[in-house]
Specification:
It is elongated and about 100 Å long. The longest helix is centred in the N-terminal third of the chain and has 58 residues. By secondary structure, the chain is α+β, with helices and mostly antiparallel strands. It is built from 2 helices and 11 strands; from the N terminus they run αββββββαβββββ.
């Protein structure tokens, strides 16, 4: 029996040693490899999530860019509005003119404001300045040295279009005068700027400084105020 027991012990000891040696490598592999891989995958997933969230927020406009510390100084100039009484100035980051208020209910279609800053004569009967054949009336400014032709035409272009007038094919430009026509049904309005040179030498070519006369002619029943 002792001998048999000794044989059993001698048989089991190699078995236990073999089992211990087979478990240690497995435990070390699990500890080394099984711990680092999930951390790397989690970091990659978190980074991808942050990048995706940033793109989405930028596309949806959730991120508002910080305003520049240096404010843009806009030119101190004003544009007269079609109502003839108010004006707007440049503002905002792009220094654009603010919008004028639209034609309100109290403004009548047949009432046309006279361009501010000019002295206007009373209305008088007169043939049209283009054909010289249409019977109508006109108002004229006094002679001035201010070349405000661009502002004059721009102002009345907005005024008349608000009241349903459209540009006509009657247009003219020469060194002595510029003319722009508008039409509404069978009625007409003509805007004109006449130039008179102040040069003592009247030989061509024509040049300024000049006196300017601004005028409005129409065959429609309009009131200028």
């Amino acid at each position: 029996m002792r001998r048999g027991s000794q044989d059993v012990r001698e048989f089991r000891m190699p078995l236990n040693l073999e089992m211990k040696s087979s478990r240690k490598p497995a435990g070390r592999e699990t500890k080394r490899g099984g711990f680092r891989l999930p951390v790397v995958l989690s970091a990659v997933a978190a980074l991808a999530l942050l990048i995706g969230a940033g793109r989405y927020a930028r596309e949806k406009g959730f991120f508002v860019p910080l305003a520049s510390k240096e404010k843009t100084a806009c030119a101190q100039e004003a544009r007269q509005c079609p109502d003839g009484k108010t004006s707007v100035s440049r503002t905002g980051p792009n220094c654009e003119f603010t919008e004028c208020s639209v034609l309100n209910e109290t403004t009548k279609e047949n009432e046309i404001p006279l361009f501010a800053g000019l002295e206007w004569s009373p209305r008088r009967s007169e043939f049209d300045p283009y054909h010289g054949e249409w019977d109508g009336y006109s108002v004229h400014s006094s002679e001035v040295k201010a070349d405000i032709q661009a502002n004059f035409f721009e102002f009345y272009d907005a005024q008349l279009k608000l009241r349903g007038w459209a540009e006509d094919q009657i247009q003219g430009d020469s060194p002595l005068a510029s003319l722009s026509g508008y039409r509404k049904g069978d009625k007409h309005i003509m805007l004109m700027v006449e130039r008179e040179s102040l040069q003592t030498n009247l030989d061509p070519p024509f040049s300024c400084p000049c006196n300017f006369v601004y005028s409005i002619w129409s065959d429609a029943n309009l009131t200028f105020n």
